[in-house]
Design goal:
The chain is of the alpha/beta class and about 350 residues long. It is built from ten helices and nine strands.
Length: about 350
Amino acid sequence: MARLFDRRVGDYYMNRCVFLYLMWLCAAGVVFSAGAVSADPNAYDPLKIPEGWNPRTVDLTVNDAQRQRPIPVWVYLPSNPKPAAVVLFSHGLGGACENNPYLGKHWAGRGYAAVFVQHPGSDTSVWQDKPPQERMAAMKKAANGQNFLLRVKDIPAVLDQIEQWNKTEGHMLQGRLDMSRVGMSGHSFGAVTTQAVSGQLTGLRQMFTDERIKAAVAFSPSSPKRGKPEKAFAKVSIPWMLMTGTKDVSMIGEADVKSRLAVFPALPPGQKYEVVLYNAEHSAFSDRPLPGDTEQRNPNHHRVILALSTAFWDAYLNHDAAAKTWLNGNGPQSILQTNDRWQKK
């Protein structure tokens, strides 16, 4: 009886020690790390960047002479001086090219030249000189077709200019860009911009597709206000990734969650992806909360955004086989939380 008691006590302490040891391993990052998706140092990990990484940033202005329009751009450069794949980002209504540095810093840390574009007329100039009580009305007024047309024409103008800078002797971007590997992304109004230059047929019955764009990520996408989504997205021929949330509603515009979720089913099959983050509001994809937010920000949302977008760029801009395997296999499930939704076709 004494031996049985001693054995049970011993088993208890052994199990307790094993439990504490496993907890220590988790805390140390051996079993799981908040900054990585795999404990295996040789496994593909889209969250891995050099420790203490800070990219070189370049503040430039594209002058579109044809439209007499200056377009500010903020460029995050990778440490490797070899030509890098280019990822463009278009901000939302009232934003600026300096917004969302968490994306630019990470993408540059992964070896991309991240070019963040600012769109005059639908940027911070809309609201920053207005009294607080007038800002919302000014923002709503700026969400118009004229600014949409300005935006979709900004993207080819920026691509033309950075392509020229890449060839210009002595320019800080000389030889830094691989213009055969260009990705496009954007949030909210920037997602509308991204969709239009990446294959969507707009309500204006025009195609603004730029053939230099090889893959696209839309944060808070939306389906057209008029017509069937299947017709609008029928000619999307490049890889697309959509990111939205179960509470992704903007205070400006008519795009609701239903509109955002209608995009993925309407896309032609093949290299198309969607993640829907649980309880994610419109601001989840930006770097700060927005007026009207009701949910506490979930730190894992940015982790998912960085991992999935990076794996997508790696797969379709860098043609990384390990990234494509991770993206099309169980990789996304390793970072998603229980109520998040992920699908591909």
